[in-house]
Amino acid sequence: MTLSPPAGWPDRLRDELGRIGPGFAVALTVAAAASFVSETYGGPVMLLALLLGMALNFLSEAGRCPAGIQFTSKRVLRIGIALLGLRIAASDVVALGLQTVELVVAGVVLTILSGVALARFVGRGARFGTLIGGATAICGASAALAIASVLPRRPESDRETIFVVVAVTTLSTIAMVIYPALFHALGFDRYQIGILVGATIHDVAQVVGAGYAVSDLTGDTGTVVKLFRVALLLPVVFIVSMLFARSRTGGETRQLPIPVFAIVFAALVVVNSFGIVPEAIREPLVGLSRWCLIAAVAAIGLSTSLKEIAKVGFPPVFVAVGTTIVLLVFTLAAVVMIAH
Hints:
This protein has 16 helices and 2 strands. The protein has helices spanning 11-41, 45-55, 66-83, 90-96, 98-121, 125-137, 141-148, 157-185, 190-200, 204-214, 216-231, 233-243, 260-273, 279-302, 306-310, 314-339, and strands spanning 246-249, 252-255. Strand 1 (246-249) and strand 2 form a beta hairpin. Helix 5 (98-121) packs antiparallel against helix 16.
């Protein structure tokens, strides 16, 4: 599959599109297949895109596709993250109330710190702990990809990122099924369950699924809480970028790039808060964001083999489960304290 630019285009643009077109088209095709399977048969679309991409890993090894696959996993990813800002408005945060906002912020900070602590405990280092802690604390796969983009590059970076995407998506799916029943058994009301699912489940789609399975009130509350967690992606990315700003690679110190996509994300949150963007434009852009993220995950899958995943080992699984439990226990305790 190729994308052929018109004959009248400048030669440089034609050459660039010819270079990235095949790989980009393959990533889009995998994303479309994953979306179709998810909508028809169910299942997390991000995980499906990842697995389908991994099944076609040979396309990234040679030929015309590698350049476009790399472009999709990096540039298209950042476009998708930036456009997430159109899903969040300041009024959504105000509606939560100060105590809920404090709960969510504290949960995010604690989860990231626990990720770093647990990663160091098993010998994986602060980089991996920040990656998996941030993904668990904020918004799953999207946060993992955003944070990975500003962390120092290492030979195992892609392998770690794809593991985190698989881990948080799998744990989020399990939580979607188990958490509502658990919270109900513990005696929480529908509003409290909404706060709990929004503050503890990793991915937005699973929060929506878990919340509305209980009630409309639970679903609405959970979605707003979750979108506030997504909004925290911006400060977290900035802080991570600054903390890892100078890294040592091959004996040389290099400066990490300024996360321009995070600045755009913030600008779009402000724009959306003032209602400047008409709904007829906002909705397609939000849809474009979703497609960019699915295509980026597909491209990461295309770039990764099952053999690479197998090299991760048991310790990262321990860290992924550990951070999830920390976030769950803290949020349960906080909601109980707020109720009393």
